[in-house]
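Sample 3 of the quickstart, ligand calcium ion:
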Amino acid sequence: MSWTRKILLILGFLSTLAVIALIAVAVTQNKPLPKNIKYGIVLDAGSSHTNLYVYEWPAEKENDTGVVQQVEVCKVEGPGISGYSHATEKAGPSLAQCLRQAEDVIPSKQHQETPVYLGATAGMRLLSLENKSAADKVLSSVEKTLRSAPFNFQGARIISGQEEGAYGWITINYLLGNFKQSGWKKLLHSLKSISETSGALDLGGASTQITFVPNELSSESPENLLYFRLYGKDYLVYTHSFLCYGKDQALQQKLAEDLQTMENSSLLDPCFHQGYQRTINISDLFKTPCTSDKKKQFPFSQLYIQGEGNYQKCRRNTQKLFNKTNCPYSSCSFNGIYLPPLQGDFGAFSAFYFVMNFLNLTSEQSPAALDRVATTIESFCARPWHEVKSAYHQIKEKYLSEYCFSGTYILSLLENGYDFTENNWERIHFLGKIGSSDAGWTLGYMLNLTNMIPAEEPAVPPLSYGSYVGLMVLCSLVLASVLLFAWLLFHKPKCLQKGIV
Ligand SMILES: Nc1ccn([C@@H]2O[C@H](COP(=O)(O)OP(=O)(O)OP(=O)(O)O)[C@@H](O)[C@H]2O)c(=O)n1
Ligand SMILES: [Ca+2]
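Result:
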């Protein structure tokens, strides 16, 4: 072998070594640190029940959007905490089992640093209107239990309807990735200076919320407007919470209304299936502040409900709950509450989802047209109770017996209350979960209280780790080839000269 050929071989070998060394250095120098996971707990103390959520996120990424996810949900046995008004000391202990479940999910050495929050919604709002001292005692009881858990207690309080709407909106937009815009979308949006978010529709047992970014800025009703700066963008958000318009309180309102014109104690109710019967104490019906204005003396103490199963009648019946007669603003939803024109897509969750999912009306591939939704509810309501009961024997009777009313109420609320029509119906997306996380206010609440949503966009390295390593490899290969080529060109080893090769 000639000396030039030897040198060439050595050089080739050295270049390969250099490339390998460069890659090795790039990989080891920039290897991401082992994942350090953090946890947070939020208890959603709703009017019908309490859920405990455990969230996790990588510690080093806590200011990025979309990194927090739900790892556990525990449904507390028994009623919501507002249901303990007659045994307030039992409200706290009812949470113990779910807290123990959270202890199993979160590594013990991290218990102490894990924040735990409890937010109570409309059930407790109503209880504090009805009996403030009972509401305070319930909150002290749950605080005592939460303080005795091994976590870092951060508060147990009643959140306002505005907060409930706003945090629900933050949750779904965080999970849908609407706050983070990358690539062409970011460019497009910065050119048009818009950023699309999705509205949020939440239906609980005692209240319902509507929250979205309206098209035009209007200061007609400042109490319905919220301002946020999130990841470097400004958002002006409309929100309203209707207390007493959750589906359980809406049913109470409807029954109290029906009672006004009754001559005897039996009620033929079009919102329940034919053959269904239920007895209600009239005193219970008027305990809630939602019906107190309809309270009067009745010549009977119990109400006997007989199902009739008639959607059209039920619809006319529930429609009466939405008073559209006077509106002091340019536009209203109902009861004289300001509502700007609807804008964009909406995510509809909690009972909106439970009910529509039961009725098979949530499919994203072929969203049901409004008239198909109505006919589905109509034919469901028309099925006799014995048939419904045997077809869905696995579903709790309390839920099952009310899907006809709830479906009808949801249509009334969306169509009569908020003015959704067949033209924008497909903009409503009924969703239970986004990824592994439930849609609801709890995630947004935790993100806010732990300062995990920065006002300005966090500085992020321009390249991801993978692209960085890839680029290093590419540059090294190009460099090595250029060197080799240059050497070959200038030194023209004999082996490459014409006649020798
Ligand atoms: N699979 C399910 C689960 C719940 N529900 C009903 O859905 C309603 C509301 O549920 P939820 O969103 O959990 O309400 P809460 O959070 O308890 O009430 P609020 O937000 O008003 O405090 C309740 O009437 C409950 O009976 C249902 O019909 N089917
Ligand atoms: Ca709720």
